[in-house]
Amino acid sequence: DKVLEIKNLNMTYHSLDGETKALDNISLDIYRGEIVVLVGPSGCGKSTLLSIIAGLLTPSSGNIIVNKSNDSINDTGYMFQKDNLFEWRTIRDNTLIGLEIQNKLTEKRKEFVENLLDTYGLSDFKDSYPSQLSGGMRQRAALIRTLATKPDFLLLDEPFSALDYQTRLVISDEIGQILKKEGKTALMVTHDIAEAMFT
Ligand code: ADP
Ligand code: ADP
């Protein structure tokens, strides 16, 4: 069961400085339950690839099929370098925000999120504000916010790079475990080999 199918993808940017070939004939398949990590130096095209998968950017040529069985972009969840938590909302209210936006905030789903917060070490912080949490805990809250909408497929863009080195090692391992435990399919891009060690 393929969640993502990319065939012969090319992306060339045109600007006043001339042309930049950001992606050169990329092909990639990701199957359900896989956690795939792409590692490469800054400027190698990682953000370009994620933007195309997310539907934010149109490739110059090539094919891309996301979640063929149900091609709703709502089934894709994102986690970025910055956790983008709202400082004026509690952790609980932050983790419910995606559900509010998608109009899926049922009692049952609230309970699902409460359980995620309990399972992943945030039970004592539900009523706290983001500034009261460590960087690692904030990233965990951001992941729970993403998991709350039950996405089939997660895109992670250098999700740990804002953390200090020790926290990065701990939290990258934790988040790898969470994704596996929840049976998620994920594509992570990073320039940092230490972030890639989480599987
Ligand atoms: P990464 O995420 O791996 O750092 P990017 O996808 O951001 O790589 O960039 C790949 C290449 O495309 C780089 O050479 C970058 O300078 C170039 N690039 C990215 N975005 C643009 C843009 N909007 N216009 C022109 N060139 C771009
Ligand atoms: P992580 O690496 O997951 O971010 P830390 O090493 O920062 O976790 O924190 C370990 C534990 O210390 C947390 O699970 C939490 O119980 C406690 N803790 C961390 N930050 C705070 C805080 N700002 N206030 C109270 N307890 C905290």
Short description:
The chain is an alpha/beta fold and 199 residues long. The protein has helices spanning 46-53, 91-95, 97-101, 107-119, 135-148, 165-181, and strands at 2-15, 18-31, 35-39, 61-66, 76-79, 153-157, 185-190.
Write structural notes for this entry.
With 199 residues, the chain is of the alpha/beta class. 31% of the residues lie in helices and 27% in strands. The chain is built from six helices and seven strands; from the N terminus they run βββαββααααβαβ. The chain has a four-stranded parallel beta sheet, sandwiched between helices. A three-stranded antiparallel beta sheet has the order 2-1-4, with helices on one face. α6 links the parallel β6 (153-157) and β7 (185-190). α4 (107-119) runs antiparallel to α5 and α5 packs parallel to α6. The longest helix has 17 residues, at 165-181. The protein is globular and about 50 Å long. The relative contact order is 0.19. One adenosine-5'-diphosphate binds next to α5 and α6.
Overview features:
alpha/beta, four-stranded parallel beta sheet, binds adenosine-5'-diphosphate, three-stranded antiparallel beta sheet, 7 strands, 199 residues, 27% strand
